[in-house]
Amino acid sequence: MAGRIASEILRRFSIDLTSYEDLYKHFHAHPELSLQEKATSEKITAHLAQLNAYEIQTNIGGYGLVGVLRNGPGKTILLRADMDALPVKELTGLPYASSVVMCDADGNDKPVMHACDIAKARASWSGTLIVLFQPNEERGGGAQAMVDDGLYSKIPIPDFCLGQHVMRLRAGTIGSRPGTIMAACDSMKVTVFGRGGHGSLPHLTVDPAVLAAHIVVRLQTIVSREIEPSDLGVLTVGSLQAGATENIIADRAEIGLDFRSVKLETRQKIITAIKRIVEAECAASGSPKPPIFTPTRRFPPTDNDNKMADQLAASFGEHFGEDFDGNTDRSNVSEDFSTLATSKGIPAAFWFLGGIDHGVWDRAIKEDSLIEVASNHSALFKPVIQPTLRAGVDALCVGALTFLGKQNSSPSHKL
Asked: Which sites bind Mn(2+) (predicted)?
């Protein structure tokens, strides 16, 4: 369906988003951590049920759910949204800010925050629409869990997968690009061992805090000295834990690592370098036991199908005008959305949705202070409800209508 037609349909069937603003505030104030999205899933299920248009299936790969809207012959389009929140104490000061505390996967209490009615227009399009609400995106396991739990035996296999995520961009803007739009991401915990003892007798110990400190400093040379400057590589030490009191030398330290790449060979180069450096520093410190490397997360790169990206660019350009950027910068953040597509060889496309208040964004641009604008995963990240919500709804609808057929069109080869 041409971009102009998709935009016209959307304008003709535009809906009042007041009730959806209330839903947004509810979800923002009642977030749930990965693998614990029970109430969120139930709330979404109840909302879909009252629309009386979708075949609903729940508890797929955890608390994942899907709604299927069949509307005659044509393509099958999957729209994905994620549901889980982050272990971050919200400091936005919003009246609907989260004050929720939940127990995380490690047994620790953590504060939590969530850093168009196509059905009405059924006479104007033909095909099948699938809305998928995915759990456990933040830990990178939800999409695979849904696939492994038989997702595609429960619903029609889609012809196209579409997804979006709010980002640190001007509210109401849409950004996409052909090819890789988000990097791959790996996380791991590295445990190194020392010999514990009293702080007054350091010569009788092997201090894992000192060992870990040397590792942290040396790890910084991987990207700066081993990755080609034109390539993408990011390595972050996100956590470092050793001991629990001032005068005791611990017997181990744990280092939390996060690293990003686009090329598989670059990923392997980073992993190899991490292990080489850690093992060498352990040997240099006289560590009594070899280190342990424990992978904790892995996100694939998110690659937009070039043909889909071109078709979406035409539709988004028609609908959003100057608020659409078809060559947005590739991001180093990561998503597991693409697993829903690559597991079945389905073409997919993903885009960014801007959520930053216009005044805040424009002032930061004028003062060259964008670095001070809070981004995703920050305790101060606070997307404005409008025009963010309207743009997000419009983008999903325009995206779906771009690939759905016109009513009375000939059947797809795949039903």
From this structure: 103, 138, 165
Q: Hunting for tokens 């995703």 — which residue is that?
A: 376
Tokens of 314: 């035409």
Apex 334 CA angle, 25 and 140, nearest 5: 80
Taking the C-alpha atoms of residue 267 and residue 67, their distance in angstroms, rounded to an integer, is 36
What is the DSSP pairing of strand 184-193 with strand 252-261?
Answer: antiparallel
Tell me the pLDDT band of 404, cut-offs 50, 70 and 90. Answer: very high
Over residues 125-137, mean pLDDT:
95
Residue 279 marked ligand-binding:
no
Look at the domain 3-183+301-403 and name its fold.
Aminopeptidase (3.40.630)
pLDDT tens per residue, range 48-79 = 999 889 999 999 999 999 999 999 999 999 99
- CB contact at 8 A, 8 and 32: no
282 is in an annotated binding site: no
Distance CA 57, CA 69 (A): 12
Strand (E) positions, 83-126? Answer: 101-103, 109-111
CATH number for the region 184-298 comes to 3.30.70.360
Contact 256/240 with Cβ under 8 angstroms? yes
pTM of the model: 0.87
